[in-house]
Amino acid sequence: MAHDIEKSINKMNDRFGFKMYELVTSSVFDIPQRLRAYDKSLFIVRSLAKDTFEVHSTDNKGGSTYCFTVPYPQLDGRVIDIAMRGDMKGNGLRFMQDVLKEEERMIEQQEKERRNFTRDFAEEFRPLFKKAKDEMGL
Fold this sequence. Notes:
By secondary structure, the protein is of the alpha+beta class. 59% of the residues lie in helices and 14% in strands.
């Protein structure tokens, strides 16, 4: 596995012709080790050009190992949380259930807004229709 990670980093650096990524093997909170304990395919690099941390996976398909850029200037437990929430292998079913639940909620919200619009329209124009009806003698 370490060989795969080394190959991935070399490939990323070769693409640019200079060292742009550096493997992060330790941090104050042992985030690289904890991430690897969660999923052996995950590793962290520091982008030297952007001065950011990125999480990569050797299991990714399609040639790119990139998973996400760490949205914080330091490595801490939130990185593990992000990786776990985005893990399709471990959370795929839950993720799909969440997506379907959110879609259902949005449909209900749209239906409620449609009913409210229809009610408001009817309340606003009812007096006008009643007046027209009375004027026509119906």
